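Tokenised fold entry reproduced for absentees:

. . .
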Amino acid sequence: MKLEGKKVGFVMTGSFCTFKTTIPQMKRIIEEGAEVVPIMSFNAYDLDTKFGKANDFIKEIQEITGKEIIHSIPEAEPIGPKRMTDIMIIAPCTGNTIAKLVNGITDTPATMAANANLF
């Protein structure tokens, strides 16, 4: 798939142990010519863990993408109606987020972004 000129929504959920391998994928997508719209779940945006501090991840992602991270439901809600993305990647995607998506639960920025992109 050619990514040049595409807007890619890149959603990160709370699987913190994989952030250090996921973030370089964001860089690759940008190197292939896509614009990345960064989105994080509440937990991914707010929690510090043994794998790193939230503010460090936020800073790195914002430097890579040149954009503020969408991290609230009101910020994520316009993604679908405004056609803000062409494709949505959820990586890492926790089991909790997968279960919510399967059951149509939209109670985090991650699930709002994914569900909004369907329409």
